[in-house]
Amino acid sequence: MNHLQISTDPTLLGADLLPESLTTSPSVSTFLPEEDASTCLLLPETPSPPLDFSHPLTPSMGNATDNHVRDSVAGDDDQAAETSSSSGSSGIGMVAPVGAGAGNLFSHNSYQHLRKKSDVVKAGQDGSMHHAASLGIAVTKDMPGFVHWNWPLIRKCTFFVFLALIVAMVGIVVAMIATLPKSCNPPATWYKGSVFYEVFPASFQDTNDDGLGDIRGLIGRAEYFKTLGIGAVRLNSIFPSKHYPDHFQEVTSLLDVDEVLGKVEDVQKLAATLHERNISLVLDLPIHPFLEHLSPPTIDVDRLPNRTDGDMVTSEFLRLSRSVATKGDGTVISDVLRFWLTRTGVDGFYVKGLEHFTDDPLLVENVKEWKYLLGPDRILMVGQQFVQQLPERIVRDVLSQVDLVDVYLDVSNGTDGIASTVRDAIQGRLLRGVEHPWIHWSLGSVTERRLASGLSPNATLAATLMELTLPGTPSIFYGDEISLEEANDPKGEHVDTQHLHHLATMVWDSTQNQFTSRGSLPWLPRSASASLHHLDYVIEAIALRKRSPSLYLNAVVKEEQTLPNTDVKSNQNEILVIQRWYPRRNSFATIANMGQKRVSLDLTAMFYSGEIVAGSSLKHERVYFDRFEINPLETIVVKLHK
Questions:
Q1: Do the Cβ atoms of 65 and 30 come closer than 8 Å?
Q2: Which part of the chain is the Glycosyl hydrolase family 13 catalytic domain (predicted)?
């Protein structure tokens, strides 16, 4: 027995009698999880580690206060355990609380968890700290307020707000994509390249069953104008005359509407109705023979912008014109323009009869004043005959104020006449070298016979489709879209109005109200035929023009240089071939057969292949130009393949 009362009998200490687990070094697995084991044997003289030792990497199991309480309760049993363990391996069976010093030193390594607010017992009024039964951290007065927030609810709200923002952003992107324009075509002023529709109001629609059309009838047909796809409606003379419509050109006033047609308020309502559908309204203003001369302007012309201030001839002409005395008071056209602009809100005027005033010394001043009153958004329109008769010294001064020049395209002269007129327009000879105005093409008017007169109605359709592919602003005379023919008077009941037979009343399909419910008309025969199925071809051609810069633009502008985008390829044997193009856009070829025979053409020297887009029932079919077949009096528009 030694001093520890342990037997020293060699037989009891034999290595062969002890289990192998006691004769080997203790493994790490036998240590407590809070302690680190040593693999080195302790020498007898090596002192045991202190009981209050705490490894820096070992999580603290409590604070100094807890350890102190544990130490006081352990008593002599812990002292005995320490003595026993010091003679063996270091750390075996060591269950030592962390001392106060060590706890304070390594308190920042403690792993602590927050509990619900209801589990926390707040500090007492005396400043002492208490603990919740399941909480491993003390709650003090200095703890931040966000600790007590309802974090589960905050997380849910934040998630749903974030999700809502994502949905909103996706919706905005989708809306932006949906509202993007389907095409990115070059813009053009409303009257440049759009299609005009000329109407003789007395022949379009009757609303009071007197056998004569009126302004209210035009208002009722506003949806028809929208369906056509036109950009403007142009009204022929609506002014009072001695006997309207028989002598509609003999105007008695320019400040009123003939009572047969309605009132000034009706024109105002018509303009508003058309504007709602993005359609403009233009009035014909016949100043001859109503006026014999022009009146002095009401605005000082010297203060108006003059694009030719450096032209000494023009300046001299203006000084001389102001010194000429006028004969009589006359009617000031400027006052007429002010009246209709302020009372009805029309979008422009076609001043007719100006060719009778080309020698008037007040012409330039009046034209400048008219355009000044109209402004840049309303148009001033004149006829080709007026331009041709202008003195050379004032051509540029006058045309610099004009927006559109009306050019009559006479298809009765055949393809040679059409080609010559189109080439003159392309090369600027029609406008005498002035580039500012645009060409306004007309195939019919109140002074010309119907295209279908003496020919097949297909002639009207062929000429109309060809016109819709020309550079400039094409105009459709009412009824040409359905190949309306002249009124037929076989019994000779209306011989006195024979000069108006080309102004036959409009024909509508059976699903719509006809021109009037009267059985007979007081001024025209009722018998006028039309090809209503032609309307679809015209609507398709207008829609094609509106979306194709190659068709609605009349030139290509590059680096301050204007280049034509139209070429008359051929005009032989009653076959007219016109090509239109625009950079980075589709090119088109218009082939018109104005003859009476079906022909097969070899156009491979000009084109290879393409797709029919207008003018034929074979729409969207691929065609090759080695044997291109076309019927008599037919126009086919082909989108060329690149």
A1: no
A2: 198-522
- Domains of the chain (ranges plus CATH)? 196-298+315-553 (3.20.20.80)
pLDDT along the chain (642 residues), means of 10: 53 49 47 47 52 53 46 44 42 43 47 49 46 50 79 93 96 91 85 96 93 95 96 96 90 94 96 97 94 85 49 40 39 89 95 94 93 92 95 93 94 90 88 84 92 83 96 96 90 86 91 84 84 95 95 86 91 94 94 94 94 90 94 95 86
Question: Which class for 521: exposed (0-12), middle (13-18), buried (19 or more C-beta within 10 A)?
Answer: buried
- Helix, strand or coil for residue 387? helix
Model pLDDT, residue 342:
93
Instruction: For CA atoms 538, 544, 547, 550, give the dihedral sign.
Output: negative
Contact indicator for 281, 270 with CB cutoff of 8 Å: yes
Q: Would you state the pLDDT for residue 154?
A: 92
Locus of tokens 């008695």? 252
Dihedral of CA 407/412/415/420: which sign?
negative
Q: Which two tokens stand for residue 63?
A: 């604070």
Asked if 49 and 89 count as a contact pair (C-beta separation under 8 A), the reply is: no
User: Is the dihedral angle over the CA atoms 252, 255, 259, 261 positive or is it negative?
Assistant: positive
pTM of this structure: 0.72
The per-residue pLDDT for 47 is: 56
- Token readout for 254 is 């320019």
Q: Are 604 and 590 in contact (CB under 8 A)?
A: no
Q: What are phi and psi of 182, to 5 degrees?
A: -70, -20
Max Cα–Cα distance, the chain, nearest Å: 160
What is the spatial distance between Cα 27 and Cα 510, in angstroms, rounded to a whole number?
108
CA–CA distances in Å: residue 76 to residues 47, 79, 143, 352, 475: 19, 5, 40, 130, 120
pLDDT of 84: 41
Tell me the C-alpha distance between 442 and 236, whole Å. 13
Rounded CA-CA distance 410/513 in Å is 33
- pLDDT for 496 equals 87
Question: How far is Cα 405 from Cα 191, in angstroms, rounded to an integer?
Answer: 12
How far apart CA 609 and CA 592 sit, in angstroms, is 17
CA distance 33 to 10: 36
SS (H, E, C) 80-118: HHHHHHHCCCCCCCCCCCCCHHHHHHCHHHCCCCCCCHH
In angstroms, rounded to a whole number, what is the distance separating the alpha carbons of residues 416 and 83? 130
